[in-house]
Structures
1.
Amino acid sequence: MPWAAMFETTKWQPTTTDGYTISINPGDSCRIQIGSDQVLTGYVQSISEEVGPDEHILRVVVTSKSIDATECSAEFSTYQMNNTTVLAIAQQVCKPFGITVNSVGGAGSTPIQQFSVILTETAYEVIERATRLAGCLFYDQPDGSILLAPVSTVSVGALIQGQNVERARFMRSMNGRFSSIQAILQTTAVLFEAPQDGNKQAQEMQALTAPGQASASDPGVTRHRPLLVPVETGDADYKIAAQRVQWEVARRYGRSMPLELTCDSWRDSNGRLWQPNTLSATYLPKLGVTLTLLIAEVEFVQGMDGTHANIIAMPPEAFKPQPLVLPMAQNEGVAAATRNS
């Protein structure tokens, strides 16, 4: 976010069928369509001209309406909100920019007892922080609005080598993957075993600082590669910590298998434009890929070499948001720790 488009032409100002000149200037509102499908609503961001002995090239860059939410500071009448929801926070922060925020699948309905905005944050940064609490994604829509949504379960046309896939590159990596991930308490542990009895002391340290229910393993990592992650303040029963370690394993697995490919059409086999946050059955026998992947990015390209869609896809686990403790729970955890100290 924001979505963007770049057009390159050899003519400065286009004309209508009636012969009227259309003036294009930075800051103009615009809408882009592919056939009858609207794909982007926003503003002309920049115009550049290039003149040479045998050429006169014009490049126009258009961005979606969310460019203002991405670059501009958030404005609020109050910088602390109580008894609200993530959707309401996103709607409030986008309202000054004329951007509508919607949700599907219950995304953004998480109740937030207390949420504070940092004075220098952009609207995008506020939404990103809030949606982490709700465990949902947010991204642009063709009409210029922003959508809060869970990781999609909607399937679109398949990506098949020899049919609609022209080129593909698939990576399998061990970068950032660990054999075991354990949540660890950020606290001082009072030990009762003698220091010289190292084995018992280690066992006691493990029992006091590493909750047994907050650990996970990655069966795809055969070497000993441990990772410790902190238990957040306010997570008294380690519920979030247990979710966090599972999320760490799943996300790292998903991010280790990116697929980049080029399709021969902007549309799938059902005639619909390729869209992010949709699932596609992917069959690339020469690369040994038979997976259902989530489309993360789509680039529509048309030039001298034809019409193509460049797609980046990964396993759905790569996009699951990180589980977090809600702010009020953190405050209550701090208060409880203070009372008990």
2.
Amino acid sequence: MSESVAVFHGPQPRIRRVAIDRPWTWLAAGWNDLWRVPLVSLACGAVPVVLGWLAVALLLWLDMPYLVLPLGAGFFFVGPFLAVGLYEISRRLETGLPVDGEAVLSAWRRNADQIALMGFALLLLNLAWMRIAQLLYAFFPWPGVPSWDRFTDLLWHATRSLPFLAAGTAIGAVLAAIAFVLGAFSIPYLLDRRCSNLFEAIATSVAAVKLNVRPMALWAGLIVLLVAMAMVPGFLGLIVVLPVVAHSTWHAYRDIVQFDAVVGDEVPKNAGSPG
């Protein structure tokens, strides 16, 4: 399937329409990247796990157990920003550049201000979600602020828990969908195209999702499933899942976003695209 449409005038990105089953190819490529440099990739995956533990501990210390679940869901908002170093690993692997800790930690410097702006936008979405979660908790008549053990018991057994969970899931899904459309390929684009800006990146991401609704919907569903399963054992699964998803996202970006011309040190179109 070779149909593509122009996103901008001039030597700018073009979006390729791909088959609905392409996410499986992206996952295979991401898995391969993980085991090409396992130490660095797994170390990148461990960082959000430690941050998650610290955040949960802080919420419990502040007697806010009702924000633990929204905190976990917030990963879907800030995940792309946390994966900058992992995108850089895949970029370096495809271009034959060496991969080391210093290169990964300094990846954001390739387009520092624009990547920071995108991270800030994702953070705002996450903060909005956390605030909505607080309002939802206040809207339903819970008996005070229970401990974490008591809260989980109330959550799964109280009669008010079903509408609470339904409302939270619906609102969270809408916000997560917005974050996915805006950020699916924004940070990989900014990392790849050093002279690009946030508006180009978001426009490219939106165009990519719009032209590939079914494969991107499958990809979003796979991300939700993998991340949700990874969070069950105390976030530990993210050590593996985050690198796999991030590496796969880079290959998805390469597969869908193409360029008519090479600019500066940018990689030619189709470089590193799976399959």
